[in-house]
Amino acid sequence: MRLHDLDFTNNLIIVRNSKGDKDRSTLFPQMLHEDLNLHLDNVKKMHSEDLKSGYGRTKLPFALSRKYPNAATTPGWQYAFPSLSISKDPRSNNYYRHHIHKSALNKSISKARVKSGIVKRVTPHVFRHRFATHLLENGTNIRVVQKLLGHNDVKTTEIYTHVMNKSFKDVQSPLENL
């Protein structure tokens, strides 16, 4: 995720090259904006220091580096969650600050799981499943959930209806209205 993929105005996150190599949008909760802005301020400071040290370029997708030669040094193209170290690209011999490795995210989630006392296995994909399930339980239209998850077919999204917490407490029999 790059800095320009965070849309604070419309509360959206652009997910690039997700399943099927497609881009999609998902929700960006307002309650995360302040903390994430503080984090991004630090990312921008790190980028500024990298530029002063002769680094500060990021690897651009596809042919964008030819089309926009200076884009690799602009803040918008920097990773929102950058690695703490700069590394050398063996193909180009250029130095870049890549994004954090997915194993770092997995380790953080594992530590949080242990700290909170959760005994079940928790992975980033579990958050995706719970996101979808909670949206459906809260009455979000299944087509909206389908779009947020990037599913081509609503049948894929319907799988989440099977794990929903199905309470009949608030359901009224049609006979009650006679």
Distance between the termini: 54 Å
Summed over residues and divided by their number, the pLDDT gives a mean of 91
Low-confidence stretches: none
Percentage beta strand: 5-15%
SSE string, helices as H and strands as E: EEEHHEEHHHH
Number of strands: 5
SS element count, helices: 6
| Biggest beta sheet attributes | 3 strands, antiparallel
Overall radius of gyration: 21 Å
**Strand numbers in spatial order across the main sheet:** 1-2-3
Please state the overall shape, judged from the principal axes of the Cα atoms. Answer: elongated
> Structural class per helix/strand content?
alpha+beta
The residue fraction in helices comes out at: 25-40%
Description:
This protein is of the alpha+beta class. It has a domain at 101-167. Strand 1 (6-7) and strand 2 (12-18) form a beta hairpin. The chain has 6 helices and 5 strands, in the order βββααββαααα. The model has no long low-confidence stretch (mean pLDDT 91). The chain has helices at 33-52, 64-67, 102-116, 124-137, 142-149, 154-158, and strands at residues 6-7, 12-18, 22-27, 87-88, 95-96. The N and C termini lie far apart (54 Å). The radius of gyration is 21 Å and the shape is elongated. The strands form 2 sheets. A 3-stranded antiparallel β-sheet has the order 1-2-3. Strands 4-5 form a two-stranded antiparallel sheet.
Looking at this protein, list some descriptive labels.
3-stranded antiparallel β-sheet; elongated; two-stranded antiparallel ribbon; 178 residues; 6 helices; alpha+beta
